[in-house]
Amino acid sequence: MARLVIRGGGLDTWPGEAKDNFIAAKISKLTGCSAPDISNRKKILLNTFIMNHRLALALKNESRRLVFNFIRKAEIAFDEYCAVRGALLEYLARPHQSVTPYFESLGIWRIASRIFIRQRCCLMVSWAKDNL
Prior knowledge:
0% strand; 132 residues
């Protein structure tokens, strides 16, 4: 991906109000990342689910697909969360050079939140279908 690099004075010469108006609201107040680092907590759940024949065969086909897709999307959301945090930290390390990492983190976050919302809706529909 191409990087937008500000030359000739850089973003450090812009007043906070200009950054907030022309780049992103309240970006001048962004000084830290409070998202915890969870990258070392990753578990390979999908592989474990596939390799656990007893559990996989005990579930009905529709339930097995639901669990499989839920685990797969949870792993994707986990990876996306780590990518968002990394892009945000990259921006914070050099806030006066490039805004590209900031916008990368926003884009990744939107994708991850859509995955989460869609999976939650799928689970709710499936649960309602099974319990009504």
